[in-house]
Amino acid sequence: MLKAIQVLGCSSGFISQxxxxxxxxxxxxxxxxxxxxxxxxxxxxxxxxxKSRSSRVIRMFSTQSNSSSDAPSSSSSSSVSVHSAGNVHKxxxxxxCGGPAKHEIPDGEEKIRAICTLCGKIAYxxxxxxxxxxxxxxxxxxxxxxxxxxxxxLWTLPAGYLEIGESAAVGAIRETWEEAGAEVEVVSPFAQxxxxxxxxxxxxxxxxxxxxxxxxxPESSECCLFELxxxxxxxxxxxxxxxxxxxxxxxxxxxxxxxxxxxxxKRLGTGPSDIRAFTLDHHLQV
Length: 286
Known about the structure:
The protein has 286 residues and is α+β, with helices and mostly antiparallel strands. Helix content is 17%, strand content 30%. The chain is elongated, with a radius of gyration of 20 Å.
């Protein structure tokens, strides 16, 4: 069900780790910064305290964005973020009364909104939440080959848009059934990855198969379990999946699975197929 095109991005951040080319073939590996956060408490209080103490600017770059000239500067990202209020100019009519919309900054606000010229109501656009599962079985990861656009024919974790009335975990379980025909049990949250300029937030869960059975649904042409060293990193569908899998592999290597938070900022002018054209900013792990 994930049909949004991932485009545009900017770079800003204060904590993360840097990437380098890995010899294991999985795309990149993490270079630990001088300060270790492995002992950080998993409580929300410790998470927020860790964030507030962080003052250094260290960015997480993909293997194709090591050059500083490839990513926009922090100052340019602030400007882009302020003026990017979704696809507000595509809203031509009021969703309540059908009246024509005008596009301007309402009193007391900072962004351009669609305002009805008849009833005066303001249309606010909110981010979409994408939920999915990272399923491990016999030390292998279950991936689905997409049978729809965007990224047709590329591999992804089973994931899609959360629906009204669902919790994030329930939505992830449903998407896994729809795309991989697999019944799973959610083990724990693994990552939250924000992609602000396209209005998406990914929440990925670690999960396990209830039964060792899976089969492609209508949106998948194939489902397969991959050894960690055999994951097709050159044929992944989205940057969010690229990041999730690499973070998981690094956690497995370290012997401790963590919860990760980060902001994926795509390089300007890139699309969903440019899965390495990004920075991962604000990277926290607990």
